[in-house]
Amino acid sequence: MELxxxxxxxxxxxxxxxxxxxxxxxxxxxxxxxxxxxxxxxSTLVKTLLGLEKQISGEIELLNGLKRNEIGYLPQKTExxxxxxxxxxxxxxxxxxxxxxxxxxxxxxxxxKAMETMELLGIEDLKDKSYMKLSGGQQQRVLLARALVSSKxxxxxxxxxxxxxxxxxxxxxxxxxxxxxxxxxxxxMISHDKVAVDEYANHVLTLGKEVSFR
Amino acid sequence: xxxxxxxxxxxxxxRYAFICGxxxxxxxxxxxxxxxxxxxxxxxxxxxxxxxxxxxxxxVLSVTNDLLIVIPVTMITAILLLGLxxxxxxKGDSALAMMxxxxxxxxxxxxxxxxxxxxxxGDVCSSLFGSTSILTLTKQDAVFAFVMTVVVGVLFVxxxxxxxxxxxxxxxxxxxxxxxxxxxxxxSVIISIVVVMSMRLVGALLxxxxxxxxxxxxxxxxSSFRNVTISSVVIGMISSAFGIVLSILxxxxxxxxxxxxxxxxxxxxxxxxx
Lengths: 214, 274
Fold this sequence. Notes:
Chain A has helices at 42-49, 88-93, 108-120, 136-150, 166-183, 194-200, and strands at 2-13, 16-27, 31-36, 57-62, 71-74, 154-158, 186-190, 203-207, 212-213. By secondary structure, chain A is of the alpha/beta class.
């Protein structure tokens, strides 16, 4: 079952085309990796898929009932102010906000789901901790939980292991693999890590001078 | 001292003024958290300067209810500021600095050239530093402050979760379908109401102090967004209550006294937390 189809997509800034005539589809259950050198347009592609930036031309079709706000997003290590007061629980819950419309508060069900997601990722003990005081690996898990809360269908993760140590990297890949393999979450991952891509991905899109898709 | 205080508080207009001063500070403190976190600490400052310009225009035009000019002008400026920064057409801080100094300059020229008032420097002084005495706040001001506090409070509670999500991570919010534009619009409206209200209390120059001080204190004390917000409101309430009482007892200017109390609380919190 296909979730997303990209047709003749051209991306770029102002007058400079970065990616030309891109064609691919993402199906349910895929572990889809996007690789390429810096400046090859990986992040631009992801931001366009998320609707944060506009394409120059071409189409992105969401299929089989997938909605825009059903795409979860784990941004590349976000530069959050180091003094931002926020508990882990508050951040995880904020994943729901996009689908709440005009409703101002979280429902009981949403709060339960947030707790379940935190348990799934092994961060339930950190619930009331300050996000800023967590380690890099823990922070990434919190953001992964927030992304999962916003969608269990399709998850876009942008270089999820940047800045993590060996152990945290290993755990992060393990979690994403678990979500994909055991819970059927479709993963789209930008990565620099050739080893990880070879090990986990079932489709690889390479951007750059040579665009390839396998 | 107590008898002096109770004498003052036996006048209904002192009570009104006290209540509305405390309410205004609470509103200002409520907004402070998100403004500080968005690196917009100076928004209150800039907007109040724009409001000063608008106030000057309405004085020159001899409009009876100057709020009819001041509130819309401030609101439009706030909306433009949040909107322009969103589109990255112009850097937020420089846009703000430009607008605020221009508004003050033009406002001051207008007042000097056209004003019919006998006491221009007195007028200017009170718009910049707030009323010298709390007793000049009228009952009408108190009613207005009360209604606006309710409006600001309700609106803020309604968009609270969206404000948190957007302030924490704008890109994630947009990607997952949060209506960032609408939330920012409502926020701008609230900010401008609060700025205009606190300008009457503490004056244009001190407005940003009542907005940011309680938030900065609370951020040193608590680590969750909710607790910081609540504590901010409480600190705003305490500092203005103390400030107003002190200003009555010592016959000092209200606005400046409130800000000094805020400063003292900040120093105390910093020392304790060290």
